[in-house]
Amino acid sequence: MPVAVGPYRQSQPTCFNHMKMGFMMGYAVCMAAEVLLGTFSCLRIGMWGWKLMGSIRKIMMQTDVIFSTFMAIRMGIQY
């Protein structure tokens, strides 16, 4: 099927571009949520200082990668 081209020679985004966009969108949304939820849960159990920062960073990286991967797969399927 031919790709539609706009009046200024703009092509449609590819499936890979959709997946990149889904990954970045999932990463940003999960990062914002984990800053709030991770900080609250770590403070609630009594963490403070560098231990708090290390735990939040670890939680954010683990959940962000998982959620963004699923979001990228979803955007690829939707395309």
From TrEMBL:
Pfam families linked to this entry: Romo1
Protein family (similarity comment): Belongs to the MGR2 family.
Localization, UniProt: Membrane
Name of the protein described by the UniProt record: Reactive oxygen species modulator 1
Membrane keyword on record: yes
Protein encoded by which gene: LOC103663090
PANTHER family: REACTIVE OXYGEN SPECIES MODULATOR 1
InterPro entries xref list: Romo1/Mgr2
Swiss-Prot/TrEMBL GO biological process terms: protein import into mitochondrial matrix; protein insertion into mitochondrial inner membrane
Entry function: Has antibacterial activity against a variety of bacteria including S.aureus, P.aeruginosa and M.tuberculosis. Acts by inducing bacterial membrane breakage. Induces production of reactive oxygen species (ROS) which are necessary for cell proliferation. May play a role in inducing oxidative DNA damage and replicative senescence. May play a role in the coordination of mitochondrial morphology and cell proliferation.
Organism: Ursus maritimus
Membrane-traversing stretches: 26-47
Leader sequence segment: none
GO cellular component: TIM23 mitochondrial import inner membrane translocase complex
Keywords: Membrane, Transmembrane, Transmembrane helix
Keyword Membrane: yes
